[in-house]
Task: structure prediction
Amino acid sequence: MTRTTVHLAVYDTFADWETGHTTAHLTQNGFTVRTVGLTTEPVTTMGGVRVQPDLALDELRPEDSALLLLTGANLWDTGEELAPFARTARAFLDAGVPVAAICGATAGLAREGLLDDRAHTSAVSFYLAATGYAGGARYVDADAVTDGGLVTAGPTEPVAFAREVFGLLGVYEAEKLDAWYRLFHDSDASAYEVLAG
Result:
């Protein structure tokens, strides 16, 4: 893939810790991370950090992106305010551009019908079942799941989520990807030698 811009969706109550590993290591490996909001007005993350989006959602085009990242947020479960991000995820997937969703964003994708025919995971199966989606039979009880161009993960798995994104985008070859995961997930100091080598 020649595109190196990754778009991180930001919105009020966005779970800012869920993509920290992903965005930091993408940036260290030649990718640019740009934030996209419903508008370019500042938003406040769940951690209380104000973020000024780089662009508004209606300016975002799949052909300008290597990946769309969606995090959890309280707003995914309290109304339709974030539904435009799920519709954008559909446009990305239809265009063959990957999407990665963690935590509550998986419920947004479920409501949009994007998990009906793809293997996926989330916090727990009954969380997604409450959306009324038709993909329950495709739910996988795993840290993170990749099916085609879609990565999903539960809220407690930001490292596994990052690993799947890196694998999808070819950030690390297999041995280094495994070492990266062992270092950051398992605190396996021996993995550092593989990464440094």
Notes: The helical segments are 20-27, 83-94, 104-111, 125-129, 158-169, 174-186, 191-196. The chain has a mean pLDDT of 96. The chain has seven helices and nine strands. The beta strands are 5-9, 32-37, 43-44, 50-51, 55-56, 67-70, 99-102, 144-147, 150-153.
